Each structure stands twice: as structure tokens, then as C-alpha cells.
Amino acid sequence: MTTVRLPLFPLNSVLFPGLVLPLNVFEERYRAMMRELLKTPEDEPRRFAVVAIRDGHEVAPSAPGMPDPTSLPERGPAAGFGTDPAKAFHKVGCIADAATIRERTDGSFEVLATGTNRVRLVSVEASGPFLTAELETLTEEPGDEAAPLAEGVLRSFRQYQKRLAGARERSLTTGADLPDEPGVVSYLVAAAMMLDTPTKQRLLQAPDTASRLRDELKLLRSETAIIRNLPSLPASDLTRGPTSLN
């Protein structure tokens, strides 16, 4: 098993390969991570790993609170994730390549990264200023009948978009052609659907592209049927999530 050690950025969301991730970095542990990444030459990838939080807080508590008002706020790289941080995270995540890391005058950072490869979490280290993880890179196998499944998912996804736009009483937000490569389709649809984090995580860690597409086909049909009976839905971008406040 070949592994790599990278900085670890836990989020309350799932990052998929090929998808853009904007970050507003203000906590000191993540500022330290960005300062370290900036030491990497510009012609080399500035990589970190993103994992979805299973049990914990994306932003550490910053002040005492109930029920114990005398307790001190947590500090350090593992704040909010318990005594064994590895147990707080889902085991499959995604490597992010930071195309832009811009430091603001107040010391916070504006970051724009893109998901690249899926990884499996092997171990987590919390001895430094920020979390790091030993990671195993996962290969993406096509599986059986990935191409025809992708065609079916695209058809269902277009219906899902139309239903969602109609429920919001507005037109579709994108007129761009959707990709037809099965792996890309599977990740785009997984990221674009309005699903909870556990479901998105299940799609991320699917054993192969075909399995992910089969799951998406069932979800799309189910979600489209639900939307048909729920005419009022909150607005949400179909292709990008909100900026994370880490």
C-alpha cells in the first residue's frame, strides 16, 4: 500500500474529484496550514486532504458555554474532534489542489481549490499546528455498464433540474452542456444533488463508477418524485456549494 502524508482539512461537507472548493480560512490551525502550503513553489501542487466530519465541529468553540460556564474553549489542531480525531471523520475523502491562496490584511485566507483524487484515511496526526493524515490513494474503476448508466443518469438529472427549477419558480441556472465521461458524470451529479452529507459520502466511497451511477439513478428518480409533490423549495445552486467557514 502506497501512502502519502498531507495536511488535513475536515469539513461538514463532501468534496468530489473535479469540483471546486472555495474556503474562507480564519481559524489559526487552518491559517497555519495555508502558511505552510504557501511555502510550496508555485509550479508545484499545493495539496491538502478534505474529509467530511462524522462527529465533531467544523469550527471549534471559541468561548465558554452551557452547560459548564467555567470550561475553557478548546485549542489546538484537534479542537472539536475529541481525543481520537480519526474517529470523528469519514474514512474516504478527497485531495484538494489549491489554485489560489490569498492572505487578507487580517491574517485570514481566501482559498480556491479543486478536488483531484479520492483517498482513504489511514491515520491522523495532531502533534503539529494543524492536523495531518496518512492517506492511501484510491483508484477509480469503471465497473460494468458505466457508459449506458451515465446516459441514464444524465437524462434523469436533466429531469431533476427541471423539476427543481419549476419548484423554485425560476429558470435553470446553467445552459452549459453536461459531460458524458461516466466518472465525471458520477461526481458532478453527486455534488449537484440536494442530498445530506451521509448520502453524499456514500456516493464518494462507492466501489466503482457504475455502482455510484446506479445509486444516483435511484436517488434521482426518488428525489424528482418528491419534488413533484413539494412545489416550494429553498434556492440553492445546482453545481456549487456555499463557501465553507472552516
TrEMBL record:
<keyword id="KW-0378">Hydrolase</keyword>
<dbReference type="InterPro" id="IPR046336">
    <property type="entry name" value="Lon_prtase_N_sf"/>
</dbReference>
<dbReference type="Pfam" id="PF02190">
    <property type="entry name" value="LON_substr_bdg"/>
</dbReference>
<keyword id="KW-0645">Protease</keyword>
<protein>
    <submittedName>
        <fullName>ATP-dependent protease</fullName>
    </submittedName>
</protein>
<dbReference type="InterPro" id="IPR015947">
    <property type="entry name" value="PUA-like_sf"/>
</dbReference>
<dbReference type="InterPro" id="IPR003111">
    <property type="entry name" value="Lon_prtase_N"/>
</dbReference>
<dbReference type="GO" id="GO:0006508">
    <property type="term" value="P:proteolysis"/>
</dbReference>
<dbReference type="GO" id="GO:0008233">
    <property type="term" value="F:peptidase activity"/>
</dbReference>
<feature type="domain" description="Lon N-terminal">
    <location>
        <begin position="6"/>
        <end position="224"/>
    </location>
</feature>
